[in-house]
Amino acid sequence: MEKVLVIGAGGQLGRELVAALRSKYGQEQVIASDIKPWEDSHLDAPYVKLNAMDEKALFEVVNSHEITEIYHLAAILSAKGEMDPLFAWDLNMKSLLNILELGKEHVKKVFWPSSIAVFGPDTPKDQTPQHTLMNPTTVYGISKLAGERWCEYYHQHYGVDVRSLRYPGLIGYKTLPGGGTTDYAVDIYYKAVQQEKFDCFLSENMKLPMMYMDDAVKATLDLMMADAEKLSVRSSYNINAISFSPREIYESIRKHYSNFEVSYTPDYREKIADSWPNSIDDTVARTDWGWKPAFDLEEMSDEIIWHLTDMLESVKSSNEMQRNSDS
Question: What is the structure's pLDDT at 139?
Fold first, then answer.
């Protein structure tokens, strides 16, 4: 039986990946970890407070819990990374190297996420291929590109079974935005369901690759379950699902909320987004391990709005009950 450690479990992807892994392996077999104390994490036990930059603490957790697989999700994302580039580089790189060192002898498999941020303004914009020119313009992208090279190096030189995906923008409803350039596509649904106007920090026609969280979790688990002999990429796999602009996601939401209003005030994140692809060619992932997304834009909007409406109604009812109880 595998014993899994998820680092950065409190983030948007981490929460849903922990739930999926516990459904697969059992609650006690999956250790959630984050830098916050447990009482502030809003995650179920088993949980450990962990700083992935602390090599000694990381080894002690892996050793004491007999960890066989690590999912290393902790990182400073694109927009936040530009506010403190040196710290973003230190966190993103030091933590990865600590994990890869453990992969040499102490764990059987490692998962580490890369990103479409590894590409740059000179990369082909449409159907960006698996192997292409990569010249990232953000510290986040630079660190992810360097991370890809380290992953491949540790696999080639030390036999580390490390696997990775170049995630596009990930969209879910269970957690609030976390500092990514594509996070407008999370926030816009919250504003629509709460019947508030939304001001988008990207221009209306800025098209980017995106993916619903369910597809991202499925892709991650499928890759980790794939036969190692079938994997031709040990840097990071391109994966693709849907590409759309803020205008297109707005139109899909208006089918549910006809009075929903959006304005556009592009900021520094517009330049970041403009350096990324419009769409991704993921032929290699489809060929190697059978990757295929399940959600298009309309299906994603239907799903998120249904869940968000239910979730926010539950919160409202809970708050009303608490107020009545207090009075």
Answer: 93
